[in-house]
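Suppose a colleague, Dr. K., hands you the sequence of a protein chain of 103 amino acids and asks what its three-dimensional shape might be. Before reaching for any lab equipment, you can write down a predicted structure in token form. Begin with the sequence itself:
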Amino acid sequence: MTIVTQENDLINFDAIKCISAYAAHIGDEDGREVEVYTLLAFDFNTNVSSDDELVDENAAISLGVFLSEEECNDVISKLISEINTGAKVFIVPQPSTESSDNK
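The predicted structure, expressed as tokens, is then:
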């Protein structure tokens, strides 16, 4: 399977060791801190500890960033479904324009 990231990079799923979601805080355009959820892939050469803590963040491949945990989990579920059906390509969707807190 090929995974197409939000940035339109092509990732070979067969070369991926694991895919995990992580919460992160970033500054928005108004300087406020916003929590986002990022979906990261790690290849077989990446060190990830047994408790899923990121050891080398520069080695992670960003598949996408989402504004809510629910949205990120939905994408993970869709990816798992596509893997189970033998899909050849999975396109990571762009994030919604609002977080669930703002709806």
